[in-house]
Amino acid sequence: MEYGTIFVNRIRQLCDMRGISINRLANMSDVKQSTLDNIMRGITKNPRVKTLHKIAIAFNMTVAEFLDFETLNEYSFESDEDDE
Questions:
Q1: pLDDT in tens, 45-81
Q2: Which of 19, 43, 47, 55 could pair with 38 as two cysteines, CB 3.0-4.6 Å apart?
């Protein structure tokens, strides 16, 4: 799985669990709709920490809680061709 896809899946999962649309998440997080759309469509593959922080707060989570899930924890950059 691609690195950026991991974030897309995490955001979708949390939105589904809370009954929140992506549009509502943009409003709740104060992240520009276009920025969130770019993440969700895979255009932005490596979102900034500031953006992830705002999204985490919208989900009433810390950044650590938002980033602490199995798929991300098991991700290996060794096979990532986008590095440097």
A1: 999 999 999 999 999 999 999 999 999 989 888 766 5
A2: 43
